[in-house]
Design goal:
The structure is a homodimer. By secondary structure, the first copy, chain A, is mainly alpha-helical. Chain A is built from eleven helices and two strands; from the N terminus they run αααββαααααααα. In chain A, α1 (16-29) packs across α3, α5 (97-125) packs parallel to α10 and α6 packs antiparallel against α7 (148-165). Chain A is elongated and about 60 Å long. Chain A starts with 15 loop residues before the first helix and ends with a helix. Chain A binds chain B through residues 53, 57, 60, 64, 69, 82-83, 85-87, 103, 106-107, 109-110, 113-114, 117, 164, 168-174, 176-178, 181, and chain B through 3, 5, 53, 57, 60, 64, 82-83, 85-87, 103, 106-107, 109-110, 113-114, 117, 164, 168-174, 176-178, 181. The structure holds a DNA duplex.
Chain lengths: 247, 247
DNA sequence: ATGTCTAACTTGTCCTATAAGCTGATGACA
DNA sequence: TGTCATCAGCTTATAGGACAAGTTAGACAT
């Protein structure tokens, strides 16, 4: 892989090991690489025309995603897909769209379990500064309803702010790990015309429950918000399936 | 399922980069390294007497834990501890005990939110094979009540089996990520004399709810199990604090 | 004082060696 | 024939030196 061949997007230039890892992962997903037949450092080095250092870092990346297992002296082995790290943004990016669709649903299930409780926890421990920031984000979202992309950024910040207010590093990290899946999910749900206005409305309700430091109300408001998202997600899924059938 | 790698008590020889990364992390935690003053590849190479390749992989490890940020041309910077990846076993291993104690409590909070629902989900989708495996693990646990370490292994397997039965890769991965924290937690709770017998009893109850494919019962049984653990955890915490005060 | 530009420093990649660990085949011995 | 030790040939782990490419801060000119 020589240097001119990088993605024409020119948005994000990634390092060689990441590019090669993406190639290999897609090849594994497509079944081109059989179970035990993972390429060695030298194989990668030869095939992609990269140095052994790069091949090495490629394998480290794949290992960190639990896609392969590597140990000194032993041949690299591919691990079963059920054990891969689906919390990693990199892996998600490399997965085919149908899998990502499934993962979005599973992610939503997780959010339904965690976020209402996080909101309730936040209601008892939230500080004035956090409330100020939430207020600020609410205002910005209201002003950005015509710009879905920018809206999504703030949306994500809003949810993470609440998560942080709950004061639990483990739960915080979990929600953070799912950040890319999350934006992907919201990108779908927020596509609907009136979705943004409705979301702002939901967010306001959550905010007010936090101001009142009312855990039950915060939990209920967050639940309602997620239910609205769920409906949009389901609709979108239907559309996708119909389109696939037509094809 | 041999999901993890090393559960053996054999002393694990770690690679140089991991050792160096452990050193550096501890130094950062102790405040020896100031915010922006992270060592460069050459610094590490010189100070620890390792090659640049090793220094490089060290930084990659720290970056993958979100401890530092590294980019070409720029100096390495230390990220705020609030953003570190507390789901990683490596990081946990390197943290001082008081922090791990706090994390255990936060982990337990997460388990309380997720595991009862996972049990309920599993109750509707569990297969006969999974039930067989659970049955087998129950028997093995009953036979291992005198050997806490071996018991813990099976205990963990039991919980993960249920998680897998819920058929959600995201939730599965979350629970898997917390595996070491989990065993650490159970290592404390299962220390109590009668704890193992009580745990087996709880497990049996959960199992029977799954056999009956009764979500509500499964949720309730899991909740009870976690509440028992919680009591033990609280007791242990009290003891630790008392010991610390005496010191 | 301000803006430009180079020099120094940093990470990214390549090359070549050597050490260390595993696997399977070979062959000696019972 | 069967069992076990040994070794050759694979693999990854580490070392050292070189250059490319990106960033930053300070020198320099205006």
């Amino acid at each position: 892989m020589q240097r001119g061949q990088e993605s024409s997007d020119a948005v994000k230039v990634r390092t060689l090991p990441v590019q090669v890892a993406a190639h290999l992962t897609r090849r594994i997903v497509s079944g081109e690489i059989e179970d035990g037949r993972a390429p060695s450092e030298l194989d990668i080095s030869r095939e992609f025309g990269v140095s052994r250092v790069v091949a090495r870092e490629t394998l480290k990346i794949l290992a960190s995603l639990d896609i392969v297992e590597v140990a000194q002296g032993r041949r690299v082995v591919v691990r079963p897909p059920a054990e891969w790290d689906y919390l990693s943004p990199l892996l998600i990016e490399w997965m085919p769209t149908e899998i990502v669709g499934e993962l979005l649903q599973e992610l939503h299930q997780m959010r339904v379990l965690l976020e209402p409780e996080l909101a309730a926890m936040a209601a008892t421990s939230v500080t004035g500064e956090t409330l100020d920031r939430l207020r600020d984000e609410l205002d910005r979202m209201a002003a950005l309803e015509s710009d879905p992309n920018a809206y999504l950024e703030v949306d994500h910040e809003f949810h993470m702010e609440i998560c942080r207010a709950a004061d639990n590093r483990i739960l915080d990290r979990i929600m953070y790990s799912a950040r890319w899946l999350g934006t992907a999910s919201r990108r779908i749900t927020n596509e609907a015309p009136a979705a943004l206005r409705k979301a702002t409305c939901d967010h306001t309700e959550i905010y007010e429950a936090l101001v009142a430091r009312d855990p039950a109300a915060a939990r209920a408001a967050m639940r309602k918000h997620l239910a609205n998202n769920s409906n949009l997600l389901a609709e979108k899924e239907q559309q996708t399936k119909r389109a696939a059938r037509r094809r």
